[in-house]
Amino acid sequence: MASKRHLFGQMWKEYAHSDSRYLTSDPFVLCMESVTAVCWGPLSFLVAWLIMSSHPLRYPLQAVVSLGQLYGDVLYYATSLFDHYHKGLIYSRPEAYYYWGYFFLLNLFWIVIPGALLYKSIVATSRAFRAQDKMSAILQGNGAVKKAI
Question: Residues 8-32: what's their mean pLDDT?
């Protein structure tokens, strides 16, 4: 991406000021970004469509994508911090806005938003199971459904 002159190439290079691993073919960044592009990106569009159409599958798929995004971002922060504190490697330029603005803030969105969506999915799933349990109890109490022996 470093040699690309189109918009995404320029954005990639600008973000690399906060994390130089994006210009050095770092194995973790390559793998993480590949999984994001191949899996989480397309699934995010599918989840957006499922949400817009109020499809019931939006909750389990939203949970899967959100958990994947959270996991990737936690690993992203963790590998950078590990390299910083254990190897003395610093990937960000010395200007504070590159670290706090690009590295910290832009990635924080990928923790807060998927975290909120994961919470929403867990609550919806819990309510669905609670409603199903109540319905089963009502039906069994009325004699409509007999217990299997």
Answer: 85
What is the full DSSP assignment across 34-61? HHIIIIIHHHHHHHHHHHHTT-TTHHHH
Q: How many CA atoms lie within 13 A of 49 on its CB side?
A: 6
Tell me the pLDDT tens digit for each residue of 61-111. Answer: 999 999 999 999 999 999 999 998 999 988 888 888 888 888 899 899 999
Q: 50-62 b/e with 16+ CB inside 10 Å = b?
A: beeeeeeebbebb
Q: CA 89, 95, 99 angle in degrees (round to 5)? A: 60
pTM: 0.80
SS3 17: coil
